[in-house]
Amino acid sequence: MEQFDLVVIGGGPGGYVAAIRAAQLGQKVALVESQHLGGICLNWGCIPTKALLRSAEMLHFAQNMSDYGITCKDIKFDLAKMVERSRKVSAQLSGGIKALLKKNKVTVFEGFGSIAAGKVVNITRHCEQSEATQPIKIKATNVILATGASARKLQGYEPDGKLVWTYKEAMLPDSMPKSLIIVGSGAIGIEFASFYRTLGAEVTVVEAQDRILPVEDKEISDLARKEFEKQGIKFITSAKLGALKKAKDGLSLALSSGLMQRSQESSETIASSPREIHADRLIMAVGIVANTEKLGLENTKIKLDRGHIVTNEYMETAEPGIYAIGDVTGAPWLAHKASHEGIIAAEKIAGLKPHPIIKTDIPGCTYSMPQIASIGLTEEAAKAAGYELKIGRFPFIGNGKAIALGEPNGLVKTIFDAKTGELLGAHMIGAEVTELVQGFAIGKQMEATELDFMHTIFPHPTLSEMMHESVLAAYGRAVHF
After folding, report:
1. Active site residue 427
2. Does domain 370-474 correspond to CATH entry 2.40.10.120?
C-alpha cells in the first residue's frame, strides 16, 4: 500500500490548489478526483458560465453598435457555437490543471475516494458498464476533503433534463427556449436570467425572500432589480412554490401566499393574488448540498452541521489529521474561498502558521449585466452590529470613463466605522465592478482606513476613480458629484 504525506479527495478549486501548495512545501501528495479536474467551478460553474455570459455581452454590444457610431446589419447568434466555445474554454483550463499537477509531482488517481480506518483511502473506479471495480488502497498521514457540493433538489421539482433544468442543462441547451422560469435569485439564478434574456427569452425570476440577491446590500439589490426590469426580466418575490405541471410544449408553476410584485404605477411592491405562470423551461437555482455521502465519515470523528463538515479556523475537523475545505464546509460557497482554505490547510499540515480567513473579507461577485460585487458588511448588518456609520455613494454617471464606455448606470457604495475609519463594507453595481472589488479587498486585508484610500492616487480616466470618490463622499469630500 503506497504511503503519502497528504491525500486530497476532490480536484476542484480547493483540492487542486491544496495539492499543489502541499507539494511546493515538500509533501508527497496524491489527488483523487472522480470526474473532472477543476471540479464544478471550472467544468460546470464559474468558468463556462462566464464564457456564455461573454457571448451574451458581445451580442448586446453588437445590437447596440449604433450608439458607438458603428453600423451592424443582420446580427444573429448561434447558440450551439456559444456552448461549444464555453466547453472549449473549460477543457483548455482543465488540461492546464493536469499539467500543473504533473509539474508539481502530484500523483493523480481517477476514481471516487472514501476514508477507511487508519487514514486508508479507498479509490473506486468504474468500468464502461458503470460497475465499480475493486478499490485501490493508499495510505495517508493527512487527508483533505475537498468534495464540494451539488445542486439542491426540491421534492416535486426534481430536474428531468428536458423541461426542468439544473445549471448543467442550462449550460447545454438543446434549443433556445422562448420563455424561462428561474427559481432562485442568487448569483446563479441572476446570471442565467441575464444570459437568456440577452438572447431574447422571456424570463421570470421567482424568489422566496422579499427581494432579489438577498445576500447583497439592500440598496444594491433594489438598484439591480430596476436595471434588470428595464431589460425586461420579470421578478416575483415573497413567493411560495405550488404545484408544477408539465406538458409537451412546456410547463406551468403555481405560486401562492405572500406574492409581491412591482406596481406598474410606482416603484412600490404590492400584494398579488395566487396565480400560475407558464414557460418552456424551468431552472432550479435554490442552493447547494454538501457532497458528504459515501465518504466514509462514519469511520471518523468528523461532525456535521446542517449537512456540512465542521472545521476550525485552520480547516481541521474533529478527526486528527483530516481537514475539510470549500463548499463541503459551508457558506460562502465560492471558488476563491475554497482555494484559500486549501492553502491554509496545506500550510498547517506542513507546520507553518497560516492566517485564518476572515469571512467578511471574502469578496462576492455576480457576472450579470450589470455586474454586482461586494465585500464586508452590508449597511443593514453594520447597523445591527452597533457601528456608527459613514456612508459614501458615487454613481457611474459622474465618471468620465463610464460615460465614454457607454456604461453610465451603476453605483459604488462604501461603509466606514465613523469612530475608527475602518472600511466595513463596499458594495457595487455596474460595468466591471467584479474587477474593481479587489481594490477594496486589499484595503480590508491591510486594515486601511479612510485616509489611506483618500491619499491613494487613482489613475484617470478609469472606473476605479469611483472607488476613490465614494470614499471621499462618505466624509463629504466628493469632487465630481
Report:
1. no
2. no
